[in-house]
């Protein structure tokens, strides 16, 4: 069983680094922290690295303060664990390819092929946190409230609160097990999902004004320019989930949000669909990836208008 091999490799290693993708989300941070805490409980020497700051709404999570935000890694670890992405490049961390002896990749994206010495890619898992849940359990760690808090966050965020089509009965069973440890899920949900800073509230007001609708309202676009972020004193991670407002409009099948990054002509595009558009496929064609109803890509050499035009043309082809 691949999980046992992964655990064996981890237990045989003296130094372990855990990494995940740039612009971290709840699944990324939650699964990193859960694995980190489990390894610590086993007396292992583990460290966590991210390229970007932990989003404000996730900083309450246990051990979140131990995540090191870095541009590059120059230390060598026995094992590097890459979570919630199938590509080392998506960590955005320089020199990462030279910082390990063995690489373990754990992910749930349908577009991930798996990489490294050991990999476990399960696209039927709603979140990487579901896979980490199994691994932690097999490590013999049960009923750990801190780990459960992190895993619940992973699963809750990646399923949009058990609402997206990736949610399964297993997702609910795992959530039930996690609740049985006594976690304060009301507090977790409020922190990670509902509560927002005033700057996020103001950002939201401005971004909603950018709505563009096409093809009889089946396609919706939202735009976050650098100027909008700056004007509202909002951080990049506060754009998370705004896309759902566009997706939720009646008649909309597919929504996209275009986020201007610091670098000129670097645009992050997120895609969400309601019933039939394969976002993973579309994102893949633009050099990204993800899941069937939620995917994304980063465009690096075209203007905002050109990216919009290209994506619009591609999406029109799949409309029914
Ligand atoms: P996002 O739009 O960033 O919220 O991402 C939606 C889903 O697609 C998440 O599961 C991401 O991990 C995945 N995703 C986003 N961008 C990329 C990319 N460039 N390559 C592969 N997967 C991506
Ligand atoms: Mn993620
Ligand atoms: Mn995920």
From TrEMBL:
Gene Ontology MF: a single term: 3'(2'),5'-bisphosphate nucleotidase activity
InterPro entries hit by this protein: DDH_dom, DHH_sf, DHHA1_dom, Oligoribo/pAp-PDE_c-di-AMP_PDE
UniProt keyword terms in alphabetical order: Hydrolase
Enzyme class, spelled out: hydrolase
Occurrences of domain DHHA1 (ranges): 224-313
Documented EC number(s): 3.1.3.7
Residue ranges of every copy of the DDH domain listed in the record: 16-155
Pfam family membership, one: DHH
PANTHER family reported for this sequence: BIFUNCTIONAL OLIGORIBONUCLEASE AND PAP PHOSPHATASE NRNA
Protein name listed in UniProt: Bifunctional oligoribonuclease/PAP phosphatase NrnA
């Amino acid at each position: 069983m691949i999980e046992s091999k992964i655990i064996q490799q981890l237990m045989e290693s003296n130094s372990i680094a855990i990494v995940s993708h740039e612009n971290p989300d709840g699944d990324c941070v939650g699964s990193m922290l859960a694995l980190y805490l489990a390894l610590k409980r086993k007396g292992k020497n583990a460290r966590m690295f991210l390229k970007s700051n932990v989003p404000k709404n996730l900083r309450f999570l246990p051990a979140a303060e131990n995540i090191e935000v870095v541009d590059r890694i120059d230390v060598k670890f026995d094992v590097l664990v890459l979570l919630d992405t199938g590509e080392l490049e998506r960590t955005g961390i320089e020199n990462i390819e030279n910082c390990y002896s063995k690489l373990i990749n754990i992910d749930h994206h349908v577009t991930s092929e798996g990489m490294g010495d050991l990999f476990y890619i399960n696209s039927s898992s709603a979140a990487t946190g579901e896979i980490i849940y199994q691994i932690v359990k097999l490590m013999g760690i049960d009923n750990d409230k801190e780990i459960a808090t992190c895993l619940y966050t992973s699963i809750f965020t990646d399923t949009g609160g058990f609402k997206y089509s990736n949610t399964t009965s297993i997702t609910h069973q795992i959530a039930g097990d996690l609740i049985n440890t006594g976690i304060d899920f009301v507090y977790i949900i409020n922190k990670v999902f509902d509560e927002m800073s005033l700057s996020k509230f103001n950002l939201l007001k401005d971004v909603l004004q950018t709505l563009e609708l096409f093809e009889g309202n089946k396609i919706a676009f939202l735009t976050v320019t650098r100027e909008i972020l700056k004007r509202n004193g909002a951080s990049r991670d506060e754009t998370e989930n705004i896309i759902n407002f566009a997706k939720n409009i009646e008649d909309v099948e597919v929504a996209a949000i275009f986020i201007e990054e610091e670098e000129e002509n670097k645009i992050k595009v997120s895609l969400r669909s309601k019933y039939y558009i394969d976002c993973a496929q579309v994102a893949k064609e633009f050099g990204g990836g993800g899941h069937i109803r939620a995917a994304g890509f980063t465009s690096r050499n075209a203007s905002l208008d050109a990216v919009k035009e290209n994506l619009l043309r591609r999406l029109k082809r799949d409309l029914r």
